[in-house]
Amino acid sequence: MSTELLQNWQKKSADHHKDYKRYLQKVDKNTVLKQLPDLNDEAYNKIDCLSCAACCKSYSPRFKTPDIKRIAKHLSLKEGQFIEQYLNLDEEGDYVVKSKPCPFLGSDNYCSIYEIRPSDCARFPYADEDVIIKRQALTLKNATFCPIVYFVLEKLMVNFNK
């Protein structure tokens, strides 16, 4: 079923956008939270992020102060140099990468700073966290470009409709 589920997933995700929104608004949070770890693991067993990397190609994580300190040190840069070279402030006052794709993404879709990547990257796509319910607009956006989020939402809705 999951191979079939993933075929043409972006179109199906767009088609199901309103269903996802309704589902996220009425679902029992505790029921969902219990299912997320297993569904997240199942999604990662079926989907290879390195074959996609849409998150790194099209969007930027927030770089929080601890991320900036850690990555700047790793790159042997002063924090100010790191910010000047790689980051901009967005409209919400968060530091994000200046360019897309992410400057740390290689042509092989591997991250050159993977071990010390920003916490947003480490947590993305939040498919095993309460973020999937608490930040519904973010979940709906992520479902448009991340097959992991799409997969988890589809499985949650199947379980919900049983």
How many DSSP H or I helices? 11
Shape: elongated
Mean pLDDT across all amino acids? 93
The description of the largest β-sheet is: 2 strands, antiparallel
Helix content: 55-70%
- According to DSSP, the number of beta strands is 2
The Cα radius of gyration reads 17 Å
How far apart are the first and last residues' alpha carbons, in Å? 16 Å
Q: What structural class is derived from the secondary structure elements?
A: mainly alpha
Q: Strands across the major sheet, in which order?
A: 1-2
- Percentage of residues in strands: under 5%
The number of distinct structural domains comes to 2
Could you spell the SSE succession in H and E letters?
HHHHHHHEEHHHH
Low-pLDDT stretches are none
